[in-house]
């Protein structure tokens, strides 16, 4: 008697997207290790503009979209296991709490932690977002996109991209003082900056629902 075993094949497209996302994230932060010498040239400004559009403008939204996609995949995995919605929410809260812990310690070393922001969203909003209808997701995403367009330009965090200069805790020479300053900055910025990634997270949930990444050939027009 033959027995058939089902092996879940790993999907290539999500892995490729994650790889490009990590590459873009690395390139987006590379400028923080090369600072201006006090003289800003037109070449510098053009380079910064291109980097913001081609790299930063893709890396951070893609990170948020993949996070939303991942939340939905976790939900699907819990449903396949037969876990209740109550237990599933506990999974999101536990993972979100751990991300906050990791983000807190990461913030003591690096001035632009983003892990805590996603942990904050997973802890407080994952259960809400995943239960929204497609229509409500679109409405809320558009609302937060408008907020980002209005307020984000006035909320620099640790690095002035226009002048290519480090700011705040990045310029503190004493490592202990810098770490303490970043801890307090992190406590403020983590909840405040969460609104900037919410649109991408919501879009990621829709992407997962419609299996845009899972079946890219069926959504070529949308992806192109």
Automatic annotation (TrEMBL):
The chain crosses the membrane at residues 20-38, 58-76, 97-130, 136-155, 186-208. InterPro entries: Bact_Transport_Assoc. Keywords: Membrane, Transmembrane, Transmembrane helix. It comes from the Bacteria. PANTHER family: INNER MEMBRANE PROTEIN (PTHR30590). This is Membrane protein YeiB. It comes from Neobacillus niacini.
């Amino acid at each position: 008697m033959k027995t058939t075993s089902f092996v879940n094949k790993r999907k290539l497209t999500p892995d490729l997207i994650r790889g490009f996302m990590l590459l873009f994230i690395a390139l987006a932060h590379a400028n923080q290790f090369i600072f201006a010498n006090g003289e800003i040239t037109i070449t510098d400004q053009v380079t910064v503009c291109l980097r913001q559009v081609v790299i930063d403008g893709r890396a951070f939204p893609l990170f948020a979209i993949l996070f939303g996609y991942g939340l939905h995949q976790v939900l699907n995995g819990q449903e396949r296991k037969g876990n209740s919605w109550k237990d599933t929410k506990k999974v999101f809260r536990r993972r979100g709490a751990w991300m906050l812990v990791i983000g807190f310690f990461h913030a003591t070393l690096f001035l632009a932690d983003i892990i805590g922001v996603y942990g904050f969203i997973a802890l407080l909003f994952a259960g809400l977002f995943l239960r929204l209808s497609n229509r409500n997701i679109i409405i809320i995403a558009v609302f937060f996109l408008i907020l980002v367009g209005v307020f984000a330009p006035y909320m620099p965090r640790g690095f002035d991209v226009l002048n290519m200069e480090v700011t705040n805790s990045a310029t503190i020479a004493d490592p202990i003082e810098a770490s303490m300053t970043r801890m307090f900055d992190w406590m403020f910025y983590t909840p405040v900056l969460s609104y900037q990634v919410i649109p991408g997270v919501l879009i990621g949930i829709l992407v997962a629902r419609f299996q845009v990444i899972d079946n890219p050939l069926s959504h070529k027009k949308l992806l192109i």
